[in-house]
Amino acid sequence: MAQRLLLTQTVIHTTRTSSAMPAAKPLLLISLSMLLVASLLVSLVLGSVTIPLEDVFRVLSGEQASKAIWTTIILNLRLPQAITAILAGAALGVSGLLMQTFFRNPLADPFVLGVSSGASLGVALVVLTIGSVTTTLLTGLGLFGDLALAVAASMGSAGVMVIVLWVARRVASGTTLLVIGLLFGYLTSAAVSVLLYFSIPERIQAYINWTFGNFSGVTWDQLAVIMPIVIVGLVIVFLLSKPLNVLLMGEAYASSMGVNLRRVRISLIMITALLAGTITAFCGPIGFLGIAVPHFCRSLFNTSDHRILIPTTILMGATVALIASIIADVPGSSLVLPLNAVTALIGAPAVIWVILGRQNMKETFAS
Amino acid sequence: MSVPLLQIQSLSAGYPQRGILPHEVVHPFTTQIHPGTVTCLIGPNGAGKSTLLTTIAGMQKPLHGHVLLEGADIHQMSITARAKRLSVVLTQKMEVGLFTGYALVAMGRHPYTGLMGKLTGQDHDVIRRSIDWVGAGQLADRPFNQMSDGERQKILIARALAQEPNLLILDEPTAYLDLPRRVECMALLRDLALRTGCAVLLSTHDLDLALRCADQMWLLPYTGQVQVGLPEDLVLSGAFESAFHSTSVSFDRMTGAFHLPEKRSKVAVLEGEGTHFVWTKRALERQGYEVLTARQPHTPVIRVDPADEPHWQIINDETCVECHSVDALLVNLRNH
User: Fold this and answer.
1) Composition of chain B by helix, strand, coil, percent to 5
2) Nearest to B115 among A4, A239, A257 (CB)
3) From residue B216, how far is each of A346, B3, B39, B195, B212 by CA, in Å?
4) B302: three-class secondary structure by DSSP
5) What are the tens digits of pLDDT across the range B11-20?
6) Are A258 and B83 an interchain contact pair (Cβ–Cβ within 8 Å)?
7) Across the interface, do A256 and B83 touch by the CB < 8 Å criterion?
8) Is A193 helix (H, G, I), strand (E, B) or coil?
9) Is the pLDDT of residue B82 over 80?
10) Is the residue at B321 inside a domain?
11) Residue in B70, B117, B132 nearest the CB of A12
12) Cα separation, B91 vs B175, whole angstroms
């Protein structure tokens, strides 16, 4: 019956040929990829010591650098850190995009569903309460500490995800979910406050350090966990780009076009919790990237089409995270700045500049 | 007549309520819709028009009864199957983001495309044809968010057509449009029904337009009892009038329009013809004049002559005043 219209009507080509896929601005896309590669190389060159580019290439191609210590620095410190930054930037940018589309709200970020709140509570419980009295805090946060934090954060995120999914199956409206996520955030931060109040200064400092965010603590072993999760998550996001576009018209229209709302909603929540939760578990709660990168890409590429936004958000998120990571490590010094402060300090002006210059932001979402 | 496309079988719509009986907004009614026809659902605000439409569109479960589209229950079929037979244009104003008109219409192909939504040549043909049907060719490359309400409505209707529906449901498609655009929109929907053979079901507050355009009218008063019939039959039986009953307006069965109640305390005789006559009569009636056509003693006579310049003359006993506009005419009458 659907064919009826086709059979009975002669197609008249009066509209000029145009594509539903807006021009992806290949030049911008190529420059973005080149910027990512350049940032990657710079991140390997710069740090507490500067390693010449030729030595970096030598190490990357499997040879030894002119100083043995440089090989170790690149392979064991800078490369895992750079890869972590790339994965974190991509994962957080895409999660932010998913949440902004899902809630049709420009203020949504990867953590609106309470993923980072859950992780914070998990970490706060471990750092502020558990821990042997006999061991000092430094050893308590040593090798075992890193893993314990990641496990605690993962469990916190997963716990929140289970609750949000449970709620999502029962409430029909996305807005309700948004409010519940928000209230959940208040609830957990209240619990964390109580824990902080009764804790000792050293532990409070350790907790605050975690909240600063950090790409450098991740080892190759941990990357072996993060990488497959992030890659699988991103592939699934690509597969969701079709329903995501239709969701921009609102849930009622999406459903009328054959989108299974419940299935898409559950997938979006799970993917976001998985991507943002994993990154938060290993790197701490990293703000700004998730909310800003999607806006930056939408504005820059002048489209809301997820088939373009998803790849560009991945590239842009990875690049911004890498640059932030380079700056946070203050090249040429042993100083390390809080990552969260750096992402916002360098990122916010850049994004504001692009958005103000383009003036296409206000049309992006419903009021 | 042809085989019914849509069968409504003792359908009632409303909202289930926890613990108590459901809130039944629309009481059970039975009717059918045939291909290529336009059905207008009218009723006062808050009577449940949107509830009824979303129930028929399968987006809300009915309280009782069935909606059969080509014999298949719309609430039982898969949501993709439903999307291929039925499409909607909703009343809400919306921002969809940065899309061109073409890209927005292309979204209508959602139920037909594969996993990644890649459009085939055939999809592009359907999209272009849908755009042509609504006469939005020049809107294809323009950003949707920069379009006027009328242009957006055309694109949204084209998007619904790109779903290749057998039934097109529109909730107040004329709500945000100015009067010429409303007429244009209704004419377009009538034309689409005839050309594509798809049935159109729409709700509207434009009673006059609905009376003129509907092949079938569904009248939904506050009582929730739907009355179905030809617009003319509903007017003649008085059902139309009682559905919109209000103390502040009255319905004129002669003209099919609602009028403000007017106290006509003054009398004037109006002579003439043509459009000038009609509009002068309207102005006089608004000012509370009972307009007569035969001369009477002690009654001012207004002569309208489109050929003469000035057009209006007030003849009062022996005096004669000439006026250049309706405004001047009314001012002169007041001063007498």
Assistant:
1) 35, 25, 40
2) A239
3) 63, 16, 5, 18, 10
4) strand
5) 999 988 877 8
6) yes
7) yes
8) helix
9) yes
10) yes
11) B132
12) 7
**For chain B, what is the domain count?**
2
Query: What domains does chain A contain, in order, with CATH numbers?
Result: 25-358 (1.10.3470.10)
* Furthest C-alpha separation in chain B: 86
The domain boundary residue, chosen from B199, B220, B252: B252
* Residue from B50, B87, B99 whose CB has the most chain A CBs within 10 Å, to mutate: B99
B218-240 residue pLDDT tens: 999 888 899 999 999 988 888 88
How close A29 comes to chain B (CA, Å)?
A: 18
- B196, B228, B252 — which closes off a domain? B252
> What is each CA distance from A277 to A151, A169, A274, A282, B76, in whole angstroms?
11, 20, 5, 9, 38
Cβ contacts of B131 within 8 Å, gap of 6 or more = A15, B101, B102, B105, B137, B139, B140, B155, B158
Tokens, residue B180: 């010429």
Among chain B residues, CA nearest to A3: B164
Q: Do B240 and B284 sit in the same domain of this protein?
A: no
pLDDT of residue B319: 81
pLDDT of residue B257: 74
B150: in domain: yes
The complex's ipTM works out to 0.80
- How far is B86 from B167, CA to CA, in rounded Å? 5
What range defines the domain where residue B309 resides?
266-334
Among candidates B111, B128, B166 on the partner chain, residue whose Cβ is nearest the Cβ of A257: B111
The CATH number that applies at residue B130 is: 3.40.50.300
Identify all chain B residues contacting A305, using CB atoms and an 8 Å cutoff: 99, 103
Distance, in angstroms, between B196 CA and closest chain A CA? 6
CA distance B60 to B67: 11
Interface size between A and B, measured as CB pairs under 8 A: 138
Per the CB < 8 A criterion, the answer to whether A343 and B78 are in contact is no
Which among A20, A360, A366 has the least Cβ separation from residue B102?
A: A20
